[in-house]
Structure formats: structure tokens, C-alpha cells
Specification:
- This protein has eight helices and ten strands.
- It is α/β, with parallel strands linked by helices.
- The protein has a single domain, classed as 3-Layer(aba) Sandwich (Rossmann fold), CATH 3.40.50.
- The chain has a six-stranded parallel beta sheet, with helices on both faces. The protein has a four-stranded mixed beta sheet with strand order 8-5-6-9, with helices on both faces.
Amino acid sequence: MIENVNVFLNNLDKRGYNAYFVNTKEDVHSVLLSIMDEKCTVGFGGSQTVEQLEIPAFLKENGFNVLHRTVNTTYDYPTLSKMAQTADWFIASTNAATVGGELVNIDGTANRISAMVYGPKNVVIVMGINKLTENLDKAIDRARNVAAPKNCVRLKKNTPCVKTGKCEENCSYLNSICRATLIQHYPTTGKNVTIIVVNGEYGY
């Protein structure tokens, strides 16, 4: 796996990403402090990885203006999501990545994927090595059959995948959280994108 991670990091560099490989939560925090301007505004996409690594609380404690529902009670979640689109920095995770350096994400409202490719100029993607796959087909499969069903369970959705644990063709669009799929080959024009790969399993 570490060999694949090294290939992955090299390919991210070739594609124009700023890539880091770290071992601990504290390492993630240190990287964020080293690359982000002090007291800037930070938006977030929905991410269990981000919450498991306690990133919102850490940034708030260090003086950043954090637009995350767990530490910002001034605004409701829809408002925070809209504000995140114009934040100085945006932090999220990815559903899957290929060793070749491509990212795959599936969203319901698309606030996350829109910010990743358009909104804020500065983006940080934090991911565990469990998100790494061999190729694009397997990355899409992971997003559909690992990440999406687990998110549906977490969100208490009434979708077939909650019962079967995998994407089903008879899913109703009224309940589906799989409404837009993004395959990202490079950082979009004008974007400064950092990918922090954590040596562990985080998120879905």
C-alpha cells in the first residue's frame, strides 16, 4: 500500500496538486497551519474524515473563522454551505481517488463538488489511504458502493442501498443522494489545491 501511496503522491504532483503524506491527526493540523493564512475564513463540505480528524475545532481554536455546523452556531447549515462557496479556503474529503491521481465524488446538493472545482481559490482535500483505488472504474465503484450507502445510513435515508449496502438501479430520485458525479483530472484553472493523504482509514 505504501508503494501505491508514493506513486499516488508523485502523480498528484505531476497533475499540479500540492501533495502531503502524514501519519497522524496532529500532522494534518500542522500542515494546515503551515499553508493557510492566519484568521482567514474556512468553508467545509460534508465530511466524516474532516470531523474524525477534528479539523473544524482545531482551526476555530487557532483563530480561524470556521464555517462548520459543529463549531459555528450563528448560521444554519444551508447558510453555512452557501457562505463556504466564497470562503478563503475550502476543506473537504474525497469519496475515492485513483493511484493515477484522479478524484471521484458523488453529491446530492453538489455544494461540495462545486466548491472543489469553482468557488474558493484555495482548496484542501484530506483523505485516508482507504480512499485510494487502482483505477477510475474502481474509484467510481467505491464512491457508489462504499461511500454512498454508508452516507445514506448515516443520514437515515430511505434508499435501497441502506438495506443492501450497494447501489441499486431501483433507487428513487426523490430519496437519492447520488445526483451529481464529478471526476476531477486536474485542479481547475486558477485553483490552489492541496491534498493531504493520511496514513490510516478515515471517513467513507
